[in-house]
Amino acid sequence: MAEDPKDWDIATKLIRGGLARSQYMETAEALYLTQGFTYDSAEGADRRFSGEDPGFVYSRFNNPTVKMFEDRLALLEGAEVCRAQATGMASIHAALMGLVRAGDHVVAGRALFGSCRWLIAEWLPRFGVETTFVDATDPKAWEAAIRPNTKAVLIETPSNPVLEITDIRAVSELAHAVGAKVIVDNVFATPIFQQPLKLGADIVVYSATKHIDGQGRVLGGAILTSEAINEEFYRDPLRHTGPSLSPFNAWVLVKGLETLDLRVRRQNDTAAALADVVAEHKAVKQVLYPFHADHPGHNVAKSQMSGGGTVLALDLGSREAAFKFLNALEIVDISNNLGDAKSMATHPPTTTHRSVPEEMRPSLGVVEGGVRLSVGLESLADLTRDVIRALDQA
To answer: ∠ CA(126), CA(176), CA(232), 5° rounding?
Structure first.
């Protein structure tokens, strides 16, 4: 009897999952850079479009290379279905819009990535959807906010940029009591360190641009869920609105998945060690890292994650100090990206969270002295030397 790929270890899933060789039996996955497909006959086209015969009809709907990426990521995540999108934000947008209509209600943690917050605060209300933000670390706040007409709950854990931790199990139970679906943005944790579907979530979204590519090359996103949810809420909207992933980007992301486990575990180890070092520096008012003992969400993080992730949040006290630190870095790049092989640091109030009203930022933890540090694959010794030297000048 052939082995079930679901029984493979993570490392094997990332190499062998979804593999579909052509008649040429290539070793590397094939890149099907095509817009459409042909049929043996008019009757064959009829059967393909009706779904009677399996196969591809148009790359906006699906594509062999894209399907390899989807199948591999679904196997890793433990999902029945993966739907790849052009970007992470396309995935968040589609995940939300597929679930709601005028008169519905959405609840989200208040400490969200800037564009995600804009979707909830500005975009959904234009279509008659009510929205509420809550302190994502407080289960009682979720309980108070969820209503009978709540259809979607959006969790970002760890959150961007201050690494707040939300109890996925607790919030999922509250949401399911009223029939709401739970969406988890799992970018910071990665599928290596956290699998939200096993914790009660209904839908997981990724910016594959981050760790899944992890090498600064392409954009991509993904929605992972069950067959039933895909059929009811996503199949037709995704087919007709066209936020599709390009085959070339899918091919790059397939190759990125091959090394995901190796990369993020190394980055995780370096980030954890770096958090211990910078916490002792006099220029640092606070360091936030989920597996650091003094993180407010440490216990919940340890209960649902197997690693603290690749990102640190630092508070240096003022914008002036944050800018001095950033400008003094020699190895670490100043960049608004994260999850890359190259270490990157940014000042969220002036970059990723610039769209958040200034008066609201402190309540979200987005402080003027804040720096988000995404740890890459450089050596711990070199990164430590670079970061400490920059902190000395902050």
So the answer is: 60
Tell me what percent of the residues of the chain surpass a pLDDT of 90: 94
Alpha helices (H) along the chain? 10-16, 42-50, 64-77, 88-97, 114-118, 139-145, 168-176, 190-193, 227-229, 235-241, 247-278, 298-304, 319-328, 380-392
Backbone angles phi, psi at 184, to 5 degrees: -120, 120
Q: Is 373 helix (H, G, I), strand (E, B) or coil?
A: strand
- The enclosing H or E element of 33 equals none
Residues 6+ apart with CB under 8 A from 23: none
pLDDT, tens only, 239-279? 999 999 999 999 999 999 999 999 999 999 999 999 999 99
Per DSSP, the three-state class of 77 is: helix
Q: Is the peptide bond before 247 cis (omega within 30 degrees of 0)?
A: no
Q: How confident is the model at residue 359 (pLDDT cuts 50, 70, 90)?
A: confident
Question: Strand pairing partners for 344?
Answer: 333, 374
User: Cα(348)–Cα(350) distance, rounded to whole angstroms?
Assistant: 5
Q: How far apart are CA 377 and CA 225, in angstroms?
A: 31
CA–CA distance, 263 with 130 (Å, rounded to integer): 40
CA–CA separation, 37 and 279 (whole Å)? 57
Q: Which two tokens stand for residue 241?
A: 């609105």
pLDDT for 1 equals 74
Do the bridges between strand 130-134 and strand 105-109 make them parallel or antiparallel, or are there none, so unpaired? parallel
pLDDT digits (tens, 9 = 90+) for 189-236: 999 999 999 999 999 999 999 999 999 999 999 999 999 999 999 999
Query: 106 - beta bridge partners?
Result: 131, 152
**pLDDT reported for residue 365:** 82
